[in-house]
Known about the structure:
The chain has helices spanning 6-13, 18-27, 42-49, 53-65, 87-106, 109-112, 117-124, 131-136, 143-155, 177-194, and strands spanning 69-71, 83-85, 129-130, 159-164, 170-175. It is mainly α. The relative contact order is 0.17.
Amino acid sequence: MQFANTQLLLDLVRYRWSIPVLALLVQGTTEVPGIHGGGAKFVTLMQRASVSPGSLRRTLDALIEQRWVCRNPGYGHPMRPEYVLTPRGINLAVAAEGVMAVLLEMDVSKAALRKWSLPVTLTLGASKAHFGEIQGNLPGVTPRALALTLKELETAGLVERTVVAAYPPRPCYELSPSGQVLSSRAKQLESALAA
């Protein structure tokens, strides 16, 4: 099953830190009144996400390019946040916060925040699929990247692999119950991207 907003989701997850940064921005890291979510300073984002300055800079540049985040145009208080969500980015950030809550609760952030992990969980949805079917629904994924993603998701307990007794034997993939919870949150993220 191919999902509708493939390219938008791929643009979002291209950088590993996009979802955590959006979640931190909607939570707010300052107490400045009048700013939805409070926004955040660069240093605060770097510390709370445990990300290097270069990775955070690339992530913020990509989020700004997609018009989900902007530099704070306001003046005044020295504690004002440097980055805030755009009106377009608020719903997306709320959905990202939901995804992060599930990932932290299940302790699978490392596996689930890789580039192809969320697109794979959305592709699998509630059905079983063979490797070629998954690859056909994800434009641009290489066989190696997909194999590594499926293996990592299986190790994290998000995907289950079974071998179909046919000739030749073929592996079949489906989401585990934990993977289905993540997939439902990822669908909310996809809906926010469409808005």
